[in-house]
Amino acid sequence: MPAPYTGGCQCGAVRYVLAAEPVRTVACHCKECQRQSGSAFGMSMIVPEKSLTVTGLTKQFTRIADNGNQNTGVFCPECGVRIYQIPQKMSLS
Q1: Which one of 50, 51, 55, 77 has the largest count of C-beta atoms within 10 Å of its C-beta?
Q2: The 70-75 sheet, strands edge to edge
Q3: Domain ranges of the chain
Q4: ω into residue 4 within 30 of 0, thus cis?
């Protein structure tokens, strides 16, 4: 099934459209991904930022990863489903 892909959170308050194919799919086994998913790993797709459109109100939570980088999770404030995350490398100034 080719792009676009549509989806959203469990309660339907947040929706998304991904207009391009994902660059890569990743299964991460770090402790934070295990906590977030409630499983042995967390699944993510790396996508071009310009190809993702999100509608509905979202909330963000930023944590510092084990490597010192910031990782911001964007989720539905009603049902708590994570919609996407933004990894950000911290500057070494």
Answers
A1: 51
A2: 59-64, 70-75, 82-88
A3: 5-88
A4: yes
CATH fold of the domain at 5-88: glutathione-dependent formaldehyde- activating enzyme (gfa) (3.90.1590)
3-state SS class at 13 = coil
Sign of CA pseudo-dihedral 50, 57, 31, 40:
negative
For 10, 21, 26, 28, 41, the CA distances from 47, given in Å and listed in that order, are 21, 7, 11, 16, 19
Q: Which pair of structure tokens corresponds to residue 37?
A: 């998913």
pTM of the full structure = 0.81
* Three-state SS at 27: strand
Q: pLDDT by residue (tens digit) across 50-80? A: 999 999 999 999 988 778 888 899 999 999 9
